[in-house]
């Protein structure tokens, strides 16, 4: 039994760009009906092109910022930047292995690659999506241990973080294997060949799409919510405890604590902001595709709904890779060093490393004072005159 699961760029189905409803079987299709809505097809191509360009440009800038930071600033490659590196690579793979093949598919209408390429593309399409979700997950877990369990975190080397990331790569590849068996290149009607999904069990389609929704979205979402909630709670508790100690201790003993309060407050605010942005955008960018897939699969009346056969469903189903579009901009928004790396490289390339070292030295002090603040201002002014 064969299914055309949707009319869009779904990494699970990815079948006919504008085919009859999903209840149609290959034997019911005729060559005379092998047509599509060209106006809708142009919109599909425009949406996919936009997603592809935003994904490639955003993640390309992140990778270039990491390169500039490492090579020109001679900065240490910390665990967090290790996670960002792999997340950007995962999102780039989403654009190259998922969005780009679907864009070519929509342009040609029917799949033109043959049997081997059909299985290769089907294997690669969900790979970047799985990998991106799991890199986000292990990043959240690493932050959770660093903030909520700092003593045990410090005792563990970076080997664990690397093993978590490499494990995400392996798990993502394993979860893509069923795609090779579900899809095959077959003749869906006389003279019409397509890369087609086949399920031999009655509830195979529902089980497979539900499994994908759980492994690619629901499980990472639960981990993200739990870890970031605990992180915010831990920082909030630390801020309150710092305030209590500062209030009870003498002036001399509490000087450093009083000066830590603004830092704790700022860290709390930034963490909460980033938590809201990461979790909210992960939900917003994942729900359109996951929701459309589950609804179309589980609702018996979905195939007869005007929404299912309309343009809105098709466009929403194209948005499976939106998370890969927004991830790089989230890290640019919350990571000052990445923004500075790009700015200094393109604007002040000759004096890049020296300027950064001066700025870094000015921000290295843990206990601010009036004198050090005045010296810092003078140093920044001098450096701007000399190197600007």
TrEMBL record:
Keywords: Cell membrane, G-protein coupled receptor, Glycoprotein, Membrane, Receptor, Transducer, Transmembrane, Transmembrane helix. It comes from the Eukaryota. Its main location: membrane. PROSITE patterns: G_PROTEIN_RECEP_F1_1, G_PROTEIN_RECEP_F1_2. One of its GO terms (molecular function) is peptide binding. It is found in: Cell membrane. Residues 58-331 form the G-protein coupled receptors family 1 profile domain. The chain crosses the membrane at residues 47-68, 80-100, 127-145, 166-185, 209-228, 276-298, 310-334. Gene3D superfamilies: Rhodopsin 7-helix transmembrane proteins. GO terms for cellular component: plasma membrane. Residues 1-30 are annotated as: Disordered. Signal peptide: none annotated. It is a multi-pass membrane protein. Belongs to the G-protein coupled receptor 1 family. Vasopressin/oxytocin receptor subfamily. This is Inotocin receptor isoform A.
């Amino acid at each position: 039994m064969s299914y055309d699961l949707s009319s869009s760029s779904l990494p699970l189905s990815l079948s006919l760009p504008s085919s009859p409803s999903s209840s149609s079987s290959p034997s019911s299709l005729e060559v005379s009906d092998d047509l599509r809505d060209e106006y809708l097809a142009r919109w599909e191509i425009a949406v996919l092109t936009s997603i592809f360009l935003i994904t490639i440009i955003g993640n390309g800038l992140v990778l270039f910022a990491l390169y500039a930071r490492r090579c020109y600033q001679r900065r240490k490659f910390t665990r967090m930047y290790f996670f960002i590196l792999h997340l950007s690579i995962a999102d780039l793979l989403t654009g190259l292995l998922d969005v780009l093949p679907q864009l070519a598919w929509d342009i040609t209408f029917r799949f033109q690659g043959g049997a081997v390429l059909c299985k290769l593309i089907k294997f690669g399409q969900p790979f970047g999506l799985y990998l991106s979700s799991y890199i986000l997950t292990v990043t959240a877990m690493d932050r959770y241990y660093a903030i909520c369990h700092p003593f045990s975190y410090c005792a563990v080397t970076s080997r664990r973080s690397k093993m978590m990331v490499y494990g995400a790569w392996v798990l993502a590849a394993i979860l893509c294997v069923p795609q090779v068996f579900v899809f095959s290149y077959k003749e869906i009607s006389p003279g019409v060949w397509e890369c087609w999904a086949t399920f031999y069990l009655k509830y195979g389609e529902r089980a497979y799409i539900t499994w994908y929704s759980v492994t690619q979205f629901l499980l990472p979402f639960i981990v993200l919510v739990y870890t970031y909630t605990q992180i915010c709670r831990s920082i909030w508790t630390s801020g309150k405890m710092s305030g209590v100690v500062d209030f009870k201790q003498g002036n001399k003993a509490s000087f450093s604590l009083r000066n830590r309060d603004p830092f704790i407050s700022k860290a709390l605010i930034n963490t909460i902001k980033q938590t809201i942005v990461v979790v909210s955008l992960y939900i917003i960018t994942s729900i359109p595709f996951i929701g459309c897939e589950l609804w179309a699969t589980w609702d018996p009346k979905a195939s007869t709904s005007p929404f299912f056969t309309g343009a809105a469903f098709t466009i929403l189903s194209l948005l499976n890779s939106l998370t890969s579009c927004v991830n790089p901009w989230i890290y640019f928004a919350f990571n000052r060093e990445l923004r500075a790396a790009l700015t200094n490289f393109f604007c002040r390339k000759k004096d890049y490393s020296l300027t950064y070292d001066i700025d870094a030295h000015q921000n290295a002090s843990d206990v601010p004072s009036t004198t050090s603040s005045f010296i810092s201002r003078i140093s920044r002014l001098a450096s701007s005159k000399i190197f600007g």
